[in-house]
Fold this protein.
Amino acid sequence: MPSHDHYLLKGAGPDHTPLLMLHGSGGTERDMVPLASQLAPSAMAVAVRGAVPWEGGFAFFRRFEDRSIDERDLVARAGRLADDVAQTGLDYRFPKPPIAIGFSNGAIMAAALLMLYPQCLSAAVLLRPLSPFATDPATRLPRTPVLIIDGHHDERRSPGDGARLARRLAHMGAEATHHQLPAGHSITEDDIRLAREWLRPLL
């Protein structure tokens, strides 16, 4: 993955759909390794490090001082990440495009990949996301399965962020499923349970 450092979990099932793990703001690729093992222990997983230094760690795109998304930067970085995902799929002989598992900043990037490069991913689990763009691209999604999980008490999100993204992705053609948990911004056991059950038939 030329533009992004990453960590590979080889998995025991080479025919399983691989996972693409995208961490939150200020994190690293190692943050997502335990989650990959919990969600799909037999699947190959590539945990990617964002390319933007941020708060002692990394992020996948830049924000402005008011923390709004720098959409121009997000579009440029999504293109580089999509290229790297395609090359990684060749290098590691992915049997099909990966399923993105994104948290927070990584969930926003995963949503941007879906919207801009729909052939890049087989599906996506978006944990604590929000819509990446003020105006959605005109792309049509090929019935891509997407799971979105919000936290009702999430102090980093506005009420309804996840539900709005689910509606926007569904309008673009995705098969979007939305859940809201009585949780904050952090990933909980309920998130893991829901995501694991949802992923099982897709692997």
Notes: Residues 3 and 81 are 7 Å apart (CA to CA). DSSP finds five helices and nine strands in the chain.
